């Protein structure tokens, strides 16, 4: 099969000159304003690396612009000083993990596996994986740094560039088909479950190499604002808007394998909680074990974000805004009907199962089983849902409003191949990529 090639933009010519111009710090911000990662719950300055523009890490990568942040890392655009001028990988993105982040080594191992499983598979190029990694010493300990090709933006940001967040349907189809091709590679060749599919974990390539050059010029003209926190750590205000689109030729890639899981054998199952609340598969909530098909459910729910510009499940949070698995299951029943008997049989059997290791919930409670973690039980011994009064009056066929007749029917047929209670009855990513809905119609003569 032919490989889809993504173009990694070269460093703009004016930045390849010596001495290298580096964005200087912008105006300092008042100490009382919280910037980027400072708003994270439990923010602790000593865990973050104090990166700054112009700093050279590992004697090779010169930090230029802060692109983003998370609760356990910051992302910087950097220059690879060892790259030749003509080398397309002279610009990289650095993910600088906190000194207490446990995900970095796991993410590195998974991505090394994903990048080498079968380079000839078409879906390999739809995974954004490591270019390299290194350790850097900070004031409070060592930080793992992961090196990636730079990407334009997340799919959630990209979607906002269109009126009413509606990406043109042909482009949506192309992106869905690409993601399924990527999942086919991830599941079949790598035997890896991503477990965390969402718009923010899908990124788009640069549609034109001049986008990066113009972005860097603006950074020299208008440097990043920053502040110094009470511990003396500089905190820069991230810049992640690369400007207006210059075309629609971006390629989506799956990113962030920090929560991914390898299931090497056919009878390997995951049992611990995975997936963002809204996209969580029923087998995860019920604690009956999950495999690659959990990603298929996850992507099936994500289709509504792409096609409709809104979430499929509308009633999964309580009055305090907290995720409620009872409400989630109730809406699944409304949209898909009740779970089949074989799912109920496995649910009753697995209720007695305790996880090999306890898992701490978001509220701090340590749980040893899915039923405890998700506040069950949910069904009685006869398979009757215990909260029938919570089932809303909704049907899956009524959730699609922006497609016309034939397209609507084809889309729902695709979705129903992904959103089934029984994990084994979901279609594989490879099968779904060939679905008629995703095939672009040829213009009639």
Automatic annotation (TrEMBL):
Where do the annotations place ATP binding? Answer: 95
Q: Name one GO biological process term.
A: regulation of RNA splicing
Mind telling me which GO cellular component terms the entry cites?
nucleus
Residue ranges annotated for the Protein kinase domain, each copy included:
61-438
SUPFAM superfamilies per the UniProt record, alphabetical: Protein kinase-like (PK-like)
Q: Which Pfam families match?
A: Pkinase
Mention one GO molecular function.
ATP binding
Record keywords: ATP-binding, Kinase, Nucleotide-binding, Serine/threonine-protein kinase, Transferase
List, alphabetically, the Gene3D superfamilies matched.
Phosphorylase Kinase, domain 1, Transferase(Phosphotransferase) domain 1
Known InterPro entries for this protein?
Answer: CLK_kinases, Kinase-like_dom_sf, Prot_kinase_dom, Protein_kinase_ATP_BS
Q: Which domain of life is it from?
A: Eukaryota
Q: Which SMART domains match?
A: S_TKc
Name the record gives this protein:
Protein kinase domain-containing protein
Q: Which organism is it from?
A: Aspergillus tubingensis (strain CBS 134.48)
């Amino acid at each position: 099969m032919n490989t889809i090639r993504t173009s990694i933009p070269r460093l703009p010519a004016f930045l390849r000159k010596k001495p290298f111009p580096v964005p200087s710090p912008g105006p300092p911000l008042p100490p009382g304003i919280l910037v980027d990662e400072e708003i994270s719950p439990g923010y602790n300055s000593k865990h973050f690396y104090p990166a700054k523009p112009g700093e050279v890490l590992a004697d090779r990568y010169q930090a230029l612009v802060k692109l983003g942040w998370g609760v356990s890392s910051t992302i910087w655009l950097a220059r690879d000083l060892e790259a030749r001028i003509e080398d397309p990988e002279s610009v990289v993105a650095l993910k600088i993990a906190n000194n207490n982040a446990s995900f970095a080594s796991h993410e590195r191992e998974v991505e090394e596996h994903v990048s080498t499983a079968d380079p000839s598979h078409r879906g390999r190029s739809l995974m954004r994986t490591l270019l390299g990694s290194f350790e850097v010493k900070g004031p409070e300990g060592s930080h793992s740094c992961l090196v990636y090709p730079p990407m334009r933006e997340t799919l959630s940001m990209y979607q906002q560039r269109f009126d009413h967040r509606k990406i043109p349907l042909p482009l949506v189809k192309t992106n869905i088909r690409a993601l399924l091709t990527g999942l086919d590679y991830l599941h079949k060749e790598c035997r890896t479950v991503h477990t965390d599919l969402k718009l923010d974990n899908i990124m788009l390539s640069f549609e034109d190499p001049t986008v990066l050059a113009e972005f860097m010029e603006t950074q020299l003209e208008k440097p990043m604002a920053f502040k110094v926190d009470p511990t003396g750590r500089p905190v820069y205000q991230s810049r992640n808007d690369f400007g207006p689109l210059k075309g629609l030729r971006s390629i989506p890639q799956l990113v962030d394998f920090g929560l991914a899981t390898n299931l090497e054998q056919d009878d390997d199952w995951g049992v611990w909680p995975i997936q963002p609340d809204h996209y969580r598969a029923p087998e995860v909530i019920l604690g009956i074990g999950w495999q690659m098909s959990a990603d298929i459910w996850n992507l099936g729910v994500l289709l509504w974000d792409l096609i409709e510009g809104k979430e499929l499940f509308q009633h999964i949070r309580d009055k305090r805004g907290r995720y409620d698995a009872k409400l989630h299951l109730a809406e699944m029943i409304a949209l898909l009907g009740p779970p089949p008997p074989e799912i109920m049989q496995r649910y009753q059997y697995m209720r007695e199962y305790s996880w090999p290791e306890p898992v701490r919930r978001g509220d701090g409670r340590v749980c040893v089983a899915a039923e405890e973690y998700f506040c069950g039980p949910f069904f009685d011994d006869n398979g009757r849902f215990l909260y029938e009064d919570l089932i809303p009056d909704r049907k899956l066929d009524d959730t699609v409003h922006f497609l016309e007749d034939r397209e609507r029917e084809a889309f729902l047929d695709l979705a129903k191949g992904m959103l089934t209670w029984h994990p084994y009855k979901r279609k594989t990513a490879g099968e779904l990529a060939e679905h008629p809905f995703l095939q672009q119609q040829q213009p009639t003569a």
